[in-house]
Amino acid sequence: MTLEFLIFFFVAAAAVTTALLMVLQRNPVMSAIYLIANFFCLAALYLLLHAQLLAVLQVVVYAGAIMVLVVFVIMLLNLGDERAAATRLNLRGIVAVVVSCALLVELLYLFAGSALDNGPPAVGADASRIGSVEGMGEALFGKFLLPFEVTSLLLLAAIIGAVVLARREPDGLRRPS
Asked: What are the tens digits of pLDDT across the range 122-144?
């Protein structure tokens, strides 16, 4: 076994552990902390795949900016410990467990099927460019230009909608449409 192989299994185990702890945690702030740890584990996995740009974006965008928003929402909503609501068994919880188990079985089936194939696909000469800035730029502004632009228009529409919905008159009344 190589050192990279051992590091992969350690980081993968840490990613699975932090994901489980995040889901099983009742305190929302602790759940957010475990999510941040999971984001760092994913960034380490990207580094093992030689995708340096994705690793940096994972840390800066998700572990940085998005988690600041999540923690701000947790503080704004003043979410407390939800022990009383979590003690009773409801239909949503049962459906969530069944769907989660079905997805787990499907993933295990897919992984077992790919392991029985003839091994990993052949790696071309441009494999080192996959996670680089040049490779991501060519993919975003080449093959995926239309979905990239549609996503930016959807985000712009969501921002405009949020501003319109949040806007109020000085006396507290909404403007008629």
From this structure: 555 455 666 677 877 888 888 88
